[in-house]
Amino acid sequence: MAFRVFMLSILLLFSLVAISSASESDGADSSTEFVLTLDQSNFSEIVSKHDFIVVEFYAPWCGHCKKLAPEYEKAASVLSSHDPPIALAKVDANDELNRELASNYEVKGFPTLKILRDGGKTVEDYKGPRDAEGIVAYLKKQSGPASVEIRSAEDATNFIGDNRVVIVGIFPEFSGEEFINFTALAEKLRSDYEFGHTLDAKLLPRGELSVTKPTIRLFKPFDELFVDFQDFHVDALGKFVEESSMPTVTVYNKDPSNHPYVIKFFNSPNAKAMLFMNFSDENDPYKTKYHEVAKEYKGKGISFLLGDIDASQGAFQFFGLKEDQVPLIVIQSNDGQKYLKPNLELDHIASWIKEFKDGNVLPFVKSEPIPATNNEPVKIVVADTLQEMVFNSEKNVLLEFYAPWCGHCKNLAPILDEVAVSFENDTDVVIAKLDATANDIPQDTFEVKGIGIKYRRNLHLRRNFDFAGEGKLCHQKKSSDSPTQDFCNFPAAYSPKAVS
Ligand SMILES: *[C@@H]1O[C@H](CO)[C@@H](O)[C@H](O)[C@H]1NC(C)=O
Ligand SMILES: *[C@@H]1O[C@H](CO)[C@@H](O)[C@H](O)[C@H]1NC(C)=O
Ligand SMILES: *[C@@H]1O[C@H](CO)[C@@H](O)[C@H](O)[C@H]1NC(C)=O
Ligand SMILES: *[C@@H]1O[C@H](CO)[C@@H](O)[C@H](O)[C@H]1NC(C)=O
C-alpha cells in the first residue's frame, strides 16, 4: 500500500495525471434524468437486471464529479437509445448508508467509475474519457465484443494502425480451446488493449503469412514491431501480453504518446532503472548502449527508462538529483531504496547495472547540504546529520518533519521557536526540524506519513514517539488551521514515567 502511494506520487511528479478535463457547463436540467440513482437499498436488484451497467461512485463535494455530471448525463441520454441500451448509474458514496457498498467496490477516490457486466458478476475499472462524446464511444466499444473479427486487409490496416499495441489471434477456425482461451483473455484485458481475430494471416501487415497453428501476434509501434506467441494457457497469454507490450526502454520526454508506457513502467513490479540525460546533446552512443543492456536484462526483474532532463524536473526534485550530474542512472528498488550513478560514462552503464544486480551498490540518500551555521533556537537536521544529531546525540530530540509549502507548518514555526527558546538552557533537549521534501528518511526509523512531529527519547530509553500531546493549549492560536500539540506539557508528558 505504502508503495502504491509512493509510486502514485512519482507519477504526480512526472505530472502525467489529470488528463481528464470535461468542459464546464451547468445547464443540467433536473427534470430529465437518464442517469439512474442507486443506493444500498436497490443497488443489487437494479444491477442484477443489467448485462452491462456503468456505476459512478461520487461525492457531492468533489469538483471532478461536478464537472463530470453534465457529461455523464448527456452520455446516458445518448446511450439509452443504443441497441441494446447501456445504463449509466450513480451512487453517492459519501452517504453513510452507501459507504459499505463503496468499500466493496474498492472506491478510494472520486469519481470512481466501474463497468459491471453480467448482472454485476464481473467488475472492471472504467478507463475511458470524461466527456460525453468520449464516454459514448468508449462504452459502445466496451459493450460490444471484446475482440473484433478482421476479414479484409483494409480491416487490418484500420484496426492495427501504426501507433498502438494491438493483439491479433490467428486461428484455423473460430473454435477450440485456444480460441476460447484467447477470448477469455480479450474479455479480461479489454479495457487495456485492443483485440482482433482472423482466419487469414495474409491479411495482416507484418509477420509470417502462412500460419497453420493457432497463434497470437502482438503488434507494437516500437522495438521489433510484432511478436508471435503460441502458448494458449490463459496465464501465459496474460504474461506475454504484459511483457511484450512494454518497450525494452521506455522513453520519457514531452511527447504525450509515450506517457501510457511511462505509467506502465511505474506500475511494473520490477526494479526501475532510469537514465536521465539531455536529449538535445549528441548522445546516441548512450542510448544504443543502454538499449543493449536493457535487452540483456529482459525478464530479469529490472525495467528501463530513458528520460530527457528537460521533461523531468519533477523526477529530479523527487529523487534529489542535480542537473550537473547528468548523464546519470537512478534505480528505484521495490523496497523503496534508491541507487545513484552520477556523471555516467558510456562504459559504466553495463558494469554498474551488474554491480547493482549483484547487490554491490550502496543506496543513495537524498539530503540537503549540511548547514554551515546552525545556531538558531530550532536546529536544522538534514538526512546526512540525522544519525549524528538525532539517533546518536544522547539527547531527547523533538523533531518536526515539515514541508515548505505546508500551512500548518508555517503556523507552527513561531510556536516551535518559542518552545526552543524556553529549552535553550536544557542540555538534554534539542528542538529541531527537517524538510521532509528535501531529505530522505530511512524507512526503519521514523514512520513519516504526513507532516508532523516526532519525539526521539535517547536518555533512559532509545525510542521514537509520535508527538501528539493533549490537554490545554499554551498558545491561543485557535484557528482551525493551528496545531493543537500541547507544548506546555513538553517534555513532561514524555518523561520516563509517562511513557514506558
Ligand atoms: C433507489 O432507491 C432510492 C431511494 O432509496 C431512490 O431515490 C432511487 O430512485 C432508486 N433507484 C432506482 C433506479 O429505482
Ligand atoms: C486454456 O487455458 C487453461 C487455463 O489456463 C489451460 O488449462 C488449458 O490448457 C488452455 N488450453 C490450451 C489449448 O492451451
Ligand atoms: C540541454 O542542452 C541544450 C543544448 O545543449 C541546452 O540549451 C539546454 O539548456 C540543456 N538543458 C539542460 C536542462 O541542461
Ligand atoms: C538561559 O541562560 C541564560 C544565561 O544564564 C539566561 O540569560 C537565559 O534567560 C536562560 N534562558 C532561559 C529560557 O531560562
Structure description:
The model is unreliable at 1-29, 469-489 and 492-500 (pLDDT under 50). With 500 residues, this protein is α/β, with parallel strands linked by helices. It has four domains: 30-143, Glutaredoxin; 147-244, Glutaredoxin; 249-357, Glutaredoxin (3-Layer(aba) Sandwich), CATH 3.40.30; 379-494, 3-Layer(aba) Sandwich (Glutaredoxin). The protein has helices spanning 2-13, 43-48, 63-79, 99-104, 132-143, 153-160, 177-189, 234-244, 259-267, 284-296, 313-319, 349-357, 386-391, 407-422, and strands at 36-38, 52-58, 87-92, 112-117, 122-125, 147-149, 166-170, 194-198, 215-219, 226-229, 249-252, 271-277, 302-308, 328-332, 338-341, 379-380, 396-402, 429-435, 452-457, 463-466. Helix 3 crosses helix 5. Strand 14 (328-332) and strand 15 form a beta hairpin. It is 29% helix and 20% strand. A five-stranded mixed sheet has the order 1-3-2-4-5. A five-stranded mixed sheet has the order 6-8-7-9-10. The structure holds 2-acetamido-2-deoxy-beta-D-glucopyranose (4 copies). One 2-acetamido-2-deoxy-beta-D-glucopyranose (NAG) binds next to strand 1.
